[in-house]
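Objective 1b: paired records.
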Amino acid sequence: MDELLDKVVSLTVSSNRDRVLNTINLIASENLMSPLALRVYISDFMHRYAEGKPFKRYYQGTYYIDELESMTNELFNKLFNSRYSDVRPVSGTIANASVFRVLAEPGDKAAIAPVQAGAHVSHTKFGTLGALGIIQVELPYDPESMNVDVDKAVKVIEEEEPRFLVLGGSVYLFPHPVEDLSNAIKSVGGKLVYDAAHVLGLIAGGAWPNPLERGADAVTGSTHKTFPGPQGGVVLFNDKDLYKRVSKTIFPWFISNHHLHRIPATAVTLLEMMEYGRDYANAIVSNARRLAEELASRGFKVLGEHLGYTRSHQVLIDVRSQGGGAKAAKLLEEAGIILNKNLLPWDPPSAVQDPSGLRIGVQEVTRIGMKGGEMEVIAELMHKVLIKREDPKKVRREVEEFRKEYRRIHYCFDPRSRQVETLLDLLG
């Protein structure tokens, strides 16, 4: 028993030290909480239950979380210019499921953005859509714009009459055409759902279009990607009736207790994004574009050059000449550069284990203070591993030395300020 306990502690400490301090993390779906958000995350709320909605619970003893959850929803509405929000989904996928279940019955159709244009697995017949018995209709893809083909998509919507349309996703460089397709889906009596899991922080900071302002009926999101809070989900609405129906579906259909310790950490992150989100979002997009340019200048095949490479936090590169996505991602991991292999538009679904590409996200390295010059360094380190074919273990020593200068979280309340120091003292 002692050995197992030691192993649990050792692996946890090693993970913190290695991933947080010694590697360059470019996973596009991850981020770091601020010191204050992390401290309120570790609270007694993690032991408690609060089934139902604030002030209408099925348990007693929920008065503190009632106040906090109501405040958090109000902050979401203020930051995203929405009228209604629900922070109870414990992930973006659960948020999607709750909306999908309200908008369609088993056997109904839903139109999704093409996988090449970023659709998340939860949008597809292989994920949440399929689990709910909803039939997937995939919209046409335009290779030139690297996006949904609007004209062909309108025809598909008119012919298929889906109950809802899903835009947004997990691998996309450019905003999806919400305005262009909103009228089309509504003309057949359907709704538009926008999955903002990856770009929620960019929307908060004004660096990405707000789908609610362009015709989306519901916006789902994750609170731990470009929005740098704890892992969790949220749904945003302007339609009161749809909000009520989805809220009644979140509980009891898809969750019971909704992991209450997320709530105060999410509230802190919302307040920080109100204060620093615009600078953070702009820095993310600037860094992504700079990294893409630096990689291209070193011989990497970076997607989207004719469109300016990217408008999100993501960069996609074709590494077939470097042995494919699986090999390239593994070599970079050995060098302390963490990212993921990814399907590119021309890859068949069967290539998922060894696709053509790599997906890169810069939101976490931006969070620790890296800027354009550091993107040049990262591109050079990747160049050494994948093109110059230097020993990854040698490059890892360079990575660890490079990371020594980046230990502090930026775009958040300063933990050294008198007010935050006092709050941290109060929290113990």
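Objective 1b, second protein:
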Amino acid sequence: MKKSETLLALAILFMFLYLLPPCLSENYIQFYQLLNHPNGSTYYGLNVGIPQSLYDYYTEKSHSVSSSNDFAKFVTPYALKPIADSLRQIYKDDEDFANGVLMIVHQIPYEVTAPARYPVETMVKNKGDCDLFSFIAASIIEASGIDAILLYYKDEEHMNIGVRLSHEPYDARGQVYSVTYSGAEYYVAECTGDDWEIGWRVGECPEELRQALKNAQIISLENSEQWAPGQVSASYATLASSSISLTVSATYLIQGNTVSLVGQLFPNLQNKTVIVYIKENSSPWKVLGTVVTDSNGRFSYSWVAETAGVCYVRASWSGDDVYAGADSPTLTITVLSMFFILLLVVAIILICVGVFVFVISRKAQPQMFEPQPPQAPS
């Protein structure tokens, strides 16, 4: 193979591997065990499904932290609400609920991690440290309607949470620890630990933090995320698979024109919310719009292409307590700007004029005849 052909092949391979987004989406499934009570004997298995699109949404959000108060933005109650709803099926008492949440985070392997991550990212990667576990626990607890706060121990480089319960913890082993915030008692909940069955319970505090607790910074969750484009799915039964398709009416169009996006959810579920995501050029994924499936599981969305360049679109369904969520393949739409079209038209006109002038000039040139050599007499 020639050197030029080799370089061309490598360039094409680079483009497909690094420049184009993946066309196939993945659905992540995590499994967590639960006990009906800290001293209980009934076991449950909770399956949690996370669509690729929701994971991508959080990985592309800002992770910057300018002050410790910014940690509140990593608490995402809406995205994890299906987990809270599932736990409520087991735990009616809010202390039992909080301990159930701790059982979940105690099953995630510990690994020092920086920078901070959103709960969905941590659950997909299945590893993290004290602050990441605290974000997950606070998100689920807040999603259930129970107030929580983050407790940040700056000198100890540690974080756990406080939970506002309706009563003092009954199941704490030993002295109960808490902090007072806005006139209410918040009981300490330690989110690290690798033995979920006998791990820390709400109201208990690690010995090395008991003196530091009085100086811990309380971070309220007023600035936590209030909405997300999608949610995880959660069920005690094995989540059935689902799929979603998407087609577009045009893959090339002029800026300002409308393109129709049509899709189908399988199985054919009615009144299910589908999120349509878009990535314009190199910008992060964002929500283009939401639609609801009809009686046949179909949906459609019309989009006016206002930004020129290369756009990527895909549809996503978050799933429910029966089906895991799903993402459609990513489709590419090229939007040509009016300026580009104008330049193209001008270029074509100039080329045509140039060809015309060239042809006319060739015809107008006088014919030059070369003298013929004299013929010998016969």
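Confidence is low (pLDDT under 50) at residues 3-24. The helical segments are 3-19, 52-59, 81-88, 94-105, 119-125, 130-143, 338-364.
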